[in-house]
Amino acid sequence: MRLAELLISAALMALSVFFMAYAVELPIGWEPGAGPGGGAFPFWLGLIMLIASAVVFVRELSNAHHVWRRYSGVDEAGNPRPAGHAPGDESDDPFIEPSAVRDILIASGALFATIAAMPIVGTYVAVPLFLIAYLRFFAGHGWLLTGLIALITPIVMFFFFEVTLKILLPKGATEPLFIPLYAIFF
Amino acid sequence: MEVFGLLASGFAESLSLLNITVILVGVTAGLFIGAMPGLGSVNGVAILLPITFLVPPASAIIFLGALYYGAMNGGAISSILLGIPGASTAVATTFDGRPMAQKGEAGFALIAAAVASFVGGTISVILFTLFAAPLADVALAFGPAEEFALVLLAFTTFVGLGGDDIWKTIVMIALGLVLSTIGLDLISGQPRLIFFDNPGLYSGVNFLVLAIGVYGIGEILWTLEQNRKGETTLTTPNITFAEIAAGMRKLVATAKTMMSGSFLGFFVGMLPAAGATPASLMAYGIARSGSKRPETFGKGNVEGVVAPECANNAASTGSLLPMLTLGIPGSPTTALLLGGMVMWGLTPGPMLFIEEPGFVWGLISSLYTANIFALLVNLALIPLFVYALRTPFTVLCAIVFVLCIIGGYAPNQKMFDVWMIAGFGVAGYLLRKADYPLAPLVLALVLGPLMEKSLRQALISAQGDPMTFLERPISATFVAIAALLFLAPAVKSLLRRRRAVAAPAE
After folding, report:
1. How far is CA B261 from CA A107, B281, B314, B320, in A?
2. Over chain B, what is the mean pLDDT?
3. Nearest partner of B117 among B381, B379, B331, B365, judged by Cα
4. How confident is the model over A17-66, as pLDDT tens digits?
């Protein structure tokens, strides 16, 4: 928990420095008679973000020190702790429920893979593949339910976005297959 | 009164066949989304906003308004039947709604929740109707200085009243505001913060990309984890017409609770940092402390269902008031509505009442209709909701992911946006795990351009003199309240420390 908190606040600090580095490309100072320049708003807000996340970082760091002490078997005063003394506060909970880590990694992995596949093999291949992989192999639903969802979703998508809204979804390599369909619906 | 004429013309607009259909579909979709554990109004609006391109902008906003109401009503369904709040706004409904279901009164609890939502919604829409035009008139006098001070005030409510970690809240506000500056400088037109010269950033970070990421992908990842904790049992209610009639008669006794819950909800809902969840918790607390038998609360007292359900619906209307009249959203959901309206060229604020009266009053009148539809659909479709609650979460998760990907691609047709959605989704999930509040982030991204523009315009017209914010009375008042709110947590902790030091000495 503590480590994750520290990493997140450190990442936010890095991000704010990154923002500020880009913001200085435009004037960040006070232009006489006109107020702040174009880079001022992102720069100074980036600085506020840096300070606030630094406060969070330092605060977590000092807490981490206490936690380390507790685990190392000495209390705040440096005296040895009785054995088996369990630190009870919530900061000792894992950052992510261990049993859920796998699920969350699989779900986000599948999401990223689907997005990466969309421009290559086309939305109408990537989305059904995602649905089959996720529903059948990850969630363990039957082929009937999986098949129905994997079949109906792309059909609804096609009629809603392409036919009704005239928004063309990425097709990638499957583009030629859609030319006859375009001829029918447009 | 002039208001009635305007409202009547609004009804003429909103009762077209298209708009009635839109309200009915919106309310029904909202009820289902609200009923699904984990998904609430803000998720529904974020995920479904792209599909509203199907209808004209005015109808799209009416749809989203109806969805907002539906989701507020629907949240109670899983609170009562599963004991899991359907949305954070329905947390307080579980306190007495679940015990009622366990006592075999699930049907009565659902009826009470539906009727209370209707009463809360209707009372708040009446308040809305009365306050909207006068507030917009006042706001007409606002110049850039007042606009800036008002946005500042909106953000400081998160610091002073938000209840989240103050430093983390400030990080999120600053992050949202910096993200809003990506793209072209509003005044000089120069490109700025184009990271790695990525051409996708010239048009800036669309609020929808962040919202779909955080409230679509992020919310699903969050719920994936939450759902692993423990098994739940679904109570199946039986509802007959006789029961509905008997329930309505019994609810007359709760009229006082309904009134206080509705008024409280409306006014708490107007504050950007508060909104429907705290409003419903406060209403629950007041109902209990004002009750003759407070010990029955938590054990299935119907007043404990009525109070929060009135308040959360009233709060959703309350949060629309500053959004529509001042252009300052009162909740994350209304922040998304605001973003949507700006996208469609309907900039909220006092000018909207003058330039687009047909739209404004059409929307307000549609809220009355949406309330009635929500009540009827809610009661009529209860068996369907029971069935929908059996939907395995993995199916919902897969479908929401697909909706997020395609819905995120549709507005600008750029794969870059979809990548950003996925990135914001994972980042939003991790930030939420580490207790960073996400509402100020979304609000800051939506309000960022207004804040910067009004700040710089005010300074340009005052020849760069920052005292302009303090010399204008309205702006000075806003700045003063903002300063008080900003300092409130520091003063509070100082007092607490002094008391803690003083106490052992006694």
Report:
1. 40, 10, 8, 18
2. 88
3. B379
4. 999 999 888 888 877 767 788 888 899 999 999 999 999 999 988 876 55
Specify the long-range contacts of residues B13-16, CB closer than 8 Å, at least 24 apart.
B13/B58, B13/B358, B13/B359, B13/B361, B13/B362, B13/B365, B14/B62, B14/B362, B14/B363, B14/B365, B14/B366, B14/B369, B15/B365, B15/B369
Which among B53, B193, B220 has CB closest to A22? B193
User: In this complex, is the C-beta atom of B413 within 8 Å of any C-beta atom belonging to chain A?
Assistant: yes
Given the DSSP bridges, would you call strands A35-36 and B183-184 parallel, antiparallel or unpaired? unpaired
ipTM for the predicted complex: 0.85
Q: Using CA atoms, how far apart are residues B206 and B179, in angstroms rounded to an integer?
A: 9
Residue showing tokens 């019994």: B250
Mutate to test the interface with B, among A2, A9, A49, A159 (most CBs of B within 10 A): A49
User: What is the Cα–Cα distance from B117 to B454, expressed in whole angstroms?
Assistant: 38
**Segment B46-90, tens digit of pLDDT:** 999 988 888 999 999 999 999 999 999 998 998 999 888 878 888
> Which positions in chain B touch A13 (Cβ < 8 Å)?
none
Largest CA distance in chain A: 82
Residue A137 contacts B, CB cutoff 8 Å: no
| DSSP one-letter code for A173 | G
Report how many Cβ contacts below 8 Å link chain A to chain B: 183
Task: Tally Cβ neighbours within 10 Å of residue B80.
Answer: 30
The rounded distance, in Å, linking the Cα atoms of B283 and B210 is 32
Among candidate residues B347, B330, B1, B23, the one with its CA nearest the CA of residue B158: B330
CA dihedral B139→B261→B245→B101, nearest 10 degrees, is 130
Rounded Cα distance, B431 and B192, in Å: 26
Contact B64, B51 (CB under 8 A): no
CA dist B40 and B89 (Å) reads: 8
